[in-house]
Amino acid sequence: EEQVDAEVGRKFLLCDYNRDGESYRSPWTNKYNPPIEDGFLPSAKLRAMEIEFNELFDAYRELYYEGGTSSVYLWDLDHGFAGCFLIKKIVAGDRYVKNGCWDSINVVEVVENDKAATYKLTTTVLLNMNMNNTQVGDALLAGSLTRQTEMTTNVNETKTHISNLGRMIEDMESEMRSNLYELYILKTREVVNSLRTLNKGPAQTVAHIANLSAAVMGYGKTRKTDSEFVA
Fold this sequence. Notes:
There is one protein chain. The protein is 31% helix and 38% strand. It is built from 3 helices and 10 strands; from the N terminus they run βββββαβββββαα. Mean pLDDT is 84; it is low at 222-231.
Protein backbone atom coordinates (compact mmCIF):
# COMPACT_ATOMS: atom_id res chain seq x y z
CA GLU A 1 0.00 0.00 0.00
CA GLU A 2 0.94 3.63 -0.47
CA GLN A 3 0.52 6.68 1.70
CA VAL A 4 1.24 10.37 1.13
CA ASP A 5 3.39 12.32 3.56
CA ALA A 6 1.22 15.42 3.93
CA GLU A 7 4.15 17.53 5.13
CA VAL A 8 6.12 17.18 1.88
CA GLY A 9 3.47 15.78 -0.47
CA ARG A 10 5.50 12.69 -1.42
CA LYS A 11 4.30 9.09 -1.55
CA PHE A 12 5.89 6.26 0.41
CA LEU A 13 5.25 2.54 0.70
CA LEU A 14 3.83 0.80 3.76
CA CYS A 15 5.40 -2.43 4.98
CA ASP A 16 6.45 -4.22 8.17
CA TYR A 17 9.83 -2.47 8.07
CA ASN A 18 8.40 1.02 8.68
CA ARG A 19 5.51 -0.03 10.88
CA ASP A 20 5.20 0.51 14.62
CA GLY A 21 1.81 -0.60 15.92
CA GLU A 22 -0.76 0.96 13.61
CA SER A 23 1.54 3.80 12.48
CA TYR A 24 3.96 3.98 9.55
CA ARG A 25 7.15 6.01 9.35
CA SER A 26 7.71 8.23 6.31
CA PRO A 27 11.23 8.00 4.85
CA TRP A 28 10.95 11.63 3.75
CA THR A 29 10.32 13.29 7.14
CA ASN A 30 11.13 10.44 9.57
CA LYS A 31 7.71 10.96 11.19
CA TYR A 32 4.98 8.44 11.95
CA ASN A 33 1.43 8.66 10.69
CA PRO A 34 -0.70 8.56 12.79
CA PRO A 35 1.79 10.28 15.16
CA ILE A 36 3.21 8.25 18.07
CA GLU A 37 5.60 9.34 20.81
CA ASP A 38 8.00 6.42 21.10
CA GLY A 39 8.18 5.01 17.58
CA PHE A 40 11.37 3.30 16.41
CA LEU A 41 13.81 5.63 14.63
CA PRO A 42 17.21 4.93 13.06
CA SER A 43 20.33 6.47 14.62
CA ALA A 44 21.40 9.90 13.38
CA LYS A 45 24.20 8.42 11.25
CA LEU A 46 21.93 5.82 9.71
CA ARG A 47 19.16 8.37 9.15
CA ALA A 48 21.55 10.52 7.10
CA MET A 49 22.34 7.48 4.95
CA GLU A 50 18.62 6.64 4.67
CA ILE A 51 17.87 10.14 3.33
CA GLU A 52 20.54 9.82 0.64
CA PHE A 53 19.42 6.28 -0.25
CA ASN A 54 15.83 7.44 -0.74
CA GLU A 55 16.78 10.26 -3.09
CA LEU A 56 19.07 8.04 -5.16
CA PHE A 57 16.65 5.10 -5.22
CA ASP A 58 13.88 7.45 -6.31
CA ALA A 59 16.02 8.51 -9.28
CA TYR A 60 16.82 4.85 -10.04
CA ARG A 61 13.10 4.01 -10.00
CA GLU A 62 12.25 6.80 -12.41
CA LEU A 63 15.10 5.85 -14.74
CA TYR A 64 14.38 2.12 -14.86
CA TYR A 65 10.63 1.90 -14.25
CA GLU A 66 9.40 5.26 -15.57
CA GLY A 67 6.93 5.71 -12.74
CA GLY A 68 5.75 4.02 -9.57
CA THR A 69 6.76 4.60 -5.96
CA SER A 70 9.96 3.71 -4.08
CA SER A 71 10.93 3.71 -0.41
CA VAL A 72 14.06 2.81 1.55
CA TYR A 73 14.04 1.98 5.27
CA LEU A 74 17.14 1.35 7.38
CA TRP A 75 17.54 0.08 10.93
CA ASP A 76 20.50 -0.45 13.25
CA LEU A 77 21.99 -3.83 14.14
CA ASP A 78 24.67 -4.69 16.70
CA HIS A 79 27.15 -5.63 13.97
CA GLY A 80 26.10 -3.07 11.33
CA PHE A 81 22.73 -2.28 9.85
CA ALA A 82 19.96 -3.65 7.66
CA GLY A 83 17.60 -2.15 5.13
CA CYS A 84 14.66 -2.67 2.85
CA PHE A 85 14.53 -1.18 -0.67
CA LEU A 86 11.05 -1.21 -2.18
CA ILE A 87 9.61 -0.36 -5.60
CA LYS A 88 5.96 -0.61 -6.57
CA LYS A 89 4.55 0.22 -9.99
CA ILE A 90 0.84 -0.01 -10.79
CA VAL A 91 -0.25 0.02 -14.44
CA ALA A 92 -3.78 0.55 -15.79
CA GLY A 93 -4.97 1.16 -19.33
CA ASP A 94 -1.59 0.50 -20.90
CA ARG A 95 -1.26 -0.45 -24.57
CA TYR A 96 -0.64 -4.08 -23.65
CA VAL A 97 -1.72 -4.38 -20.01
CA LYS A 98 -5.29 -3.76 -18.86
CA ASN A 99 -4.11 -3.55 -15.26
CA GLY A 100 -1.22 -4.93 -13.30
CA CYS A 101 1.34 -4.43 -10.57
CA TRP A 102 5.09 -4.90 -10.19
CA ASP A 103 6.63 -5.22 -6.70
CA SER A 104 10.36 -5.30 -6.10
CA ILE A 105 11.50 -6.08 -2.54
CA ASN A 106 15.21 -5.94 -1.68
CA VAL A 107 16.20 -6.79 1.91
CA VAL A 108 19.86 -6.40 2.85
CA GLU A 109 21.96 -7.12 5.95
CA VAL A 110 25.30 -5.35 6.26
CA VAL A 111 28.00 -6.72 8.57
CA GLU A 112 30.74 -4.15 9.11
CA ASN A 113 34.31 -5.20 9.86
CA ASP A 114 37.08 -2.59 10.02
CA LYS A 115 37.43 -1.22 6.47
CA ALA A 116 35.30 -3.88 4.81
CA ALA A 117 31.69 -5.03 4.87
CA THR A 118 29.72 -8.12 3.95
CA TYR A 119 26.42 -7.52 2.18
CA LYS A 120 23.73 -10.20 2.18
CA LEU A 121 20.95 -9.37 -0.28
CA THR A 122 17.62 -11.14 -0.73
CA THR A 123 15.49 -9.90 -3.62
CA THR A 124 11.91 -10.86 -4.40
CA VAL A 125 10.04 -9.72 -7.50
CA LEU A 126 6.28 -10.18 -7.84
CA LEU A 127 4.30 -9.43 -10.98
CA ASN A 128 0.62 -9.53 -11.85
CA MET A 129 -0.62 -8.55 -15.32
CA ASN A 130 -4.17 -8.73 -16.67
CA MET A 131 -4.23 -8.42 -20.47
CA ASN A 132 -7.22 -8.24 -22.76
CA ASN A 133 -6.74 -7.33 -26.43
CA THR A 134 -7.06 -8.87 -29.87
CA GLN A 135 -3.37 -9.68 -30.21
CA VAL A 136 -2.95 -11.51 -26.90
CA GLY A 137 -6.53 -12.35 -25.93
CA ASP A 138 -7.72 -12.49 -22.35
CA ALA A 139 -4.72 -13.52 -20.27
CA LEU A 140 -3.61 -13.26 -16.65
CA LEU A 141 0.11 -13.54 -16.05
CA ALA A 142 1.37 -13.73 -12.50
CA GLY A 143 4.54 -14.94 -10.89
CA SER A 144 7.29 -14.34 -8.39
CA LEU A 145 10.97 -15.05 -8.02
CA THR A 146 13.38 -14.82 -5.08
CA ARG A 147 17.16 -14.77 -5.30
CA GLN A 148 19.97 -14.28 -2.78
CA THR A 149 23.52 -13.09 -3.15
CA GLU A 150 26.40 -12.15 -0.86
CA MET A 151 29.40 -9.91 -1.37
CA THR A 152 32.34 -8.82 0.79
CA THR A 153 34.19 -5.72 -0.31
CA ASN A 154 36.10 -2.71 0.92
CA VAL A 155 34.35 0.37 2.27
CA ASN A 156 36.07 3.75 1.85
CA GLU A 157 35.47 7.24 0.50
CA THR A 158 35.00 6.02 -3.05
CA LYS A 159 33.41 2.64 -2.32
CA THR A 160 30.71 3.64 0.13
CA HIS A 161 27.78 1.56 1.36
CA ILE A 162 25.58 3.49 -1.04
CA SER A 163 27.64 2.68 -4.12
CA ASN A 164 28.19 -0.95 -3.10
CA LEU A 165 24.52 -1.63 -2.37
CA GLY A 166 23.32 0.35 -5.37
CA ARG A 167 25.36 -1.79 -7.72
CA MET A 168 24.23 -5.03 -6.05
CA ILE A 169 20.54 -4.16 -6.29
CA GLU A 170 20.79 -2.91 -9.86
CA ASP A 171 22.59 -6.07 -11.02
CA MET A 172 20.22 -8.37 -9.14
CA GLU A 173 17.05 -6.78 -10.49
CA SER A 174 18.34 -6.81 -14.07
CA GLU A 175 19.24 -10.49 -13.79
CA MET A 176 15.88 -11.38 -12.27
CA ARG A 177 13.90 -9.63 -15.00
CA SER A 178 15.73 -11.78 -17.52
CA ASN A 179 15.21 -14.95 -15.46
CA LEU A 180 11.49 -14.31 -15.05
CA TYR A 181 11.05 -13.92 -18.78
CA GLU A 182 12.77 -17.23 -19.45
CA LEU A 183 11.05 -19.09 -16.62
CA TYR A 184 7.50 -17.88 -17.17
CA ILE A 185 6.87 -16.63 -20.71
CA LEU A 186 8.79 -19.33 -22.54
CA LYS A 187 7.60 -22.06 -20.16
CA THR A 188 3.98 -20.93 -20.55
CA ARG A 189 4.25 -21.29 -24.31
CA GLU A 190 5.62 -24.81 -23.98
CA VAL A 191 2.94 -25.94 -21.50
CA VAL A 192 -0.02 -24.40 -23.35
CA ASN A 193 1.04 -25.86 -26.68
CA SER A 194 1.39 -29.31 -25.12
CA LEU A 195 -2.02 -29.25 -23.43
CA ARG A 196 -4.53 -27.97 -25.94
CA THR A 197 -5.38 -26.23 -29.19
CA LEU A 198 -7.65 -23.21 -28.89
CA ASN A 199 -10.77 -23.19 -31.02
CA LYS A 200 -11.59 -19.61 -30.09
CA GLY A 201 -9.37 -16.66 -29.42
CA PRO A 202 -5.77 -16.23 -30.54
CA ALA A 203 -3.83 -19.37 -31.40
CA GLN A 204 -0.63 -20.18 -29.58
CA THR A 205 1.50 -19.30 -32.57
CA VAL A 206 4.85 -17.60 -32.90
CA ALA A 207 3.01 -14.34 -33.61
CA HIS A 208 0.87 -14.75 -30.49
CA ILE A 209 3.91 -15.40 -28.31
CA ALA A 210 5.63 -12.40 -29.85
CA ASN A 211 2.71 -10.18 -28.84
CA LEU A 212 2.72 -11.66 -25.37
CA SER A 213 6.44 -11.03 -25.07
CA ALA A 214 5.98 -7.46 -26.28
CA ALA A 215 3.46 -6.88 -23.50
CA VAL A 216 5.89 -8.19 -20.93
CA MET A 217 8.83 -6.19 -22.19
CA GLY A 218 6.75 -3.04 -22.39
CA TYR A 219 5.60 -3.53 -18.79
CA GLY A 220 8.84 -4.19 -16.93
CA LYS A 221 11.22 -2.08 -18.85
CA THR A 222 14.52 -0.60 -17.82
CA ARG A 223 16.55 2.26 -19.24
CA LYS A 224 16.61 1.95 -23.03
CA THR A 225 16.12 -1.79 -23.35
CA ASP A 226 14.34 -3.85 -20.84
CA SER A 227 12.99 -7.13 -21.11
CA GLU A 228 11.04 -9.61 -19.21
CA PHE A 229 8.28 -11.17 -17.71
CA VAL A 230 5.97 -13.44 -16.07
CA ALA A 231 3.32 -15.90 -16.05
